[in-house]
Amino acid sequence: MAATTKVADLTGPGITDAFGIGGTDLGVLATAPDGRLVAVFGDTFDRATVGGPGWRSPVVLFADPDSLSGGLRWTGSGGDRGGYARQLVPYPRAGLLRRPRCSTMLPTDLITIGDTMFLHVMACRGLGNVLWTEILASTDNGVSWQRTGAEWPGSACQCLFQMLTWALGDDGHVYAYTTGFQRDAGLLLHRVPAGSVTDPGAWRPWGFAQERWGWGNPATLTLPGAFGELCLRRVPGPDGRRHWLLVFFDAGAYRIDVLLLDAPHADLYRAPRTTVLVGEDWAGEDHAAGRVAQLYGGYVVPGSTLSDLHLVVSQWNTATNWPYRAMQFRTDVSGLLPGGA
Known about the structure:
By secondary structure, the protein is mainly β. The chain has a domain at 106-336: Neuraminidase (6 Propeller). Helix content is 2%, strand content 44%. It has two helices and 22 strands. The chain has helices at residues 94-97, 156-159, and strands at residues 4-9, 26-31, 37-41, 59-63, 74-77, 104-113, 116-124, 130-138, 146-153, 163-168, 173-179, 188-193, 204-209, 212-215, 227-236, 242-250, 255-261, 273-280, 291-293, 295-300, 309-316, 324-331. The chain is globular.
């Protein structure tokens, strides 16, 4: 297990009150075209709890990109000129689309391509019940967002195209790992030309058929398991190269793991793997030692390196509804490289 320590709480009383954020979670991150950090959070409430006034999702906070080492410093919010963090888009009315109205839209990952930011969200009716997924877009550095019309039913790929993470490769393709929102299934892989991310017909699965793996074959599990939140990123290493990392909440093992990939479609069975945070009960948790009660998430903070990897991790005490917050941890996974570093 890699040594991991807590850097700071990122949300909650005394931290995000100015934005109307008491309780929230998730916090997927990307660098905006103008250089600032954009963080997107899930179900958000005015008070430090789950429930009560101000329920909305998703919401955006902006961070100073130079605040990584001491804990992200929030500089503003989306939707209200830096004040109250407002819900990014209104939910579609049920009557227009002849389907049940969603109760929340949860962010799964964020990516910047050129001068546009894209956000993948799950439209849910209750936790774990995904009605559909879709892509939102922003052309003003994450301040305002619009629905793009790119949608997939919640049942797509046998319900394994719900939770998504993506990253841009040097070949002009966006690579995306996905799983279900029930935290009981393995991973699928797709890719799409960067200029066509909002065209569902342009996405191609990675699959095994006729004794070989290939793009366009029926989608095939790349790794079985019981996975939750995912984060695929390219992170600089001490060797001067950018390395593919897949960070994920392993719900089955109750921990957050990191895989080092030699390519986005690497053999995940053989990829070097380490645990960076382990789940613990409330009496035994120790954030300084990487033991966290009711943890989930695990999103890479831009500016990270393999030897100084920063992650946004969520925690929700489902018995008392506090803590319900996002936190920042740092770790060193350079030992995954051949030779240890």
